[in-house]
Amino acid sequence: MKNKANNTTPAIVDTITNSKKRTRNASQSKPKPEPEEFPIGGDIEDFQFREDEVADIRSSLLKWYDVNRRDLPWRRINEEDATDNDDDDEIDRKAYAVWVSEIMLQQTRVQTVISYFNRWMEKWPTVHHLAQASIEEVNEMWAGLGYYRRARFLLEGAKMVVEEGGKFPRSASDLLKVKGIGEYTAGAIASIAFKEAVPVVDGNVIRVIARLKTISANPKEKATIKNIWRLAGQLVDSHRPGDFNQAVMELGATLCTPSSPNCSSCPVSTQCSALLKSKHDQSALVTDYPTKVEKVKQRLDYSAVTIVEILESEQPKVNKSDWGSKFLLVKRPEEGLLAGLWEFPSVSLDVKADLITRRRAVDDYLKSSFGLKLHRPSDIVSRDEVGEYVHIFTHIRLRMYIELLVLRSQVETDFGYCLRTDLHRKKDKGLVSFKYVDTKTLATMGLSTGVRKAYNMVQKFRQNRSSLVSR
Ligand code: SF4
């Protein structure tokens, strides 16, 4: 973590002395009023910030933020020509930038988001541009960020805003009506773009407030989160709500980190109950807050993924690597995990299964869903196990067995011998959409990280044995 010097508030000098990262007071600095609640415990409903604490925290944090804030592209948009008289279009442009950045930031680290955000804003600089996009384009832009539902909601939300007249609702409560905008995002847009004095609460804010007030309640519980919102609402500065909210999050992201808080540089160290407690009680650590909650155990699932490649010619077309191949892709259901994304055919397995069982399941699936009949050995050019890997979702560890199945173009299908490019087929559980795409299309499509990884594994597998295999 990068520690930044703070020259705006008197700092308590603390040292992180051992591997357990204990934070202790090492010197006496200027006397400041101490948080009176330490060590309070008790019902979280009773926690309050005193008026003088609120004033101190606001002033210290904003001063620190003015000096230390990171220069980020979405902040630049919001700081451009910042006046109290921004015209409506300008305010909407800012709201849109906050929206896009906040949704991306819910996915991954700031450093990763920067390039995604810049590309996104270049392609769709306003909500009107985004509303014209297709879901394929949006998924392509989002590829690699994961949790594609959020990307789809951005698109649907943009369409909603444009259909309602092209203006974002001007308050946090009204923003909640836009598809994909939840309480956190509404608070961020309203406070940053519209200057409404509403709080935001994310993991960083929970951590900072839990430490400021030595809150030991389970931070995952609804009641705790509700009360953190209430406390964050007490703190938010009515003159600079957007800056204040960003300052708290920035503090959590850069100084008040989960395991290595840099209390010696912290602008609100004199208001921090957890730090005070650690000075009085050698066994207490600031990192005791918020309370650690045991992670939900991830479920282990298995899946057989088959990359079906159809050779359109018996000879390479232009160079040795171009056989005019087409790859079978199937669209995932519109609801649930990775909704609406294209992927290679895959079969979920109840348990870990051997190769024969997997192939049997795959063959049934290819026949019932895509009409591919694999009963003539002459149709199969090759069939190889490529490898396996584990893809981690929030609550699932998915072990994927990757296989490459290369077929001749004459392979028999329910549709005769001709492979069409866009097909829909009725199945018991609805419509299955699938298509055959060439290598070039595959390379530019918005595919999930898991699908891209499977394809890369196949490429690598091919390279490794290219000198041995002759088609
Ligand atoms: S708010 Fe965080 S970084 Fe600041 S003194 Fe408290 S524990 Fe340390």
Number of domains: 2
User: What's the count of strands?
Assistant: 10
The geometry reads as elongated
- Which cofactors or ions or other ligands sit in this model? iron/sulfur cluster
Do you know the CATH topology of the largest domain?
Answer: Endonuclease III, domain 1
Structural class: alpha+beta
H/E element sequence: EEHHHHHHHHHHHHHEEEEHEEEEHH
Binned strand content: 15-25%
Q: Detail the poorly predicted runs.
A: 1-30
- Name the CATH homologous superfamily of the largest domain: Hypothetical protein, domain 2
Task: Give the C-alpha Rg.
Answer: 27 Å
Q: What is the typical, i.e. mean, pLDDT?
A: 83
Number of helices: 16
In helices, the fraction of residues equals: 25-40%
Give the distance, in angstroms, between the N- and C-terminal Cα atoms: 53 Å
Q: How would you characterize the largest beta sheet?
A: 8 strands, mixed
Task: Report on this structure.
It is an enzyme of class 3 (hydrolase). GO terms for molecular function: 4 iron, 4 sulfur cluster binding; 8-oxo-7,8-dihydroguanine DNA N-glycosylase activity; adenine/guanine mispair binding; metal ion binding; oxidized purine DNA binding; purine-specific mismatch base pair DNA N-glycosylase activity. The chain has 471 residues and is α+β, with helices and mostly antiparallel strands. The chain is 39% helix and 15% strand. The protein contains 16 helices and 10 strands. The longest helix is centred in the first third of the chain and has 18 residues, at 51-68. Iron/sulfur cluster binds next to helix 10 and helix 13. Residues 208, 211-212, 255-256, 261, 263, 266, 268-269, 272, 274-275, 286 line the site of iron/sulfur cluster (SF4).
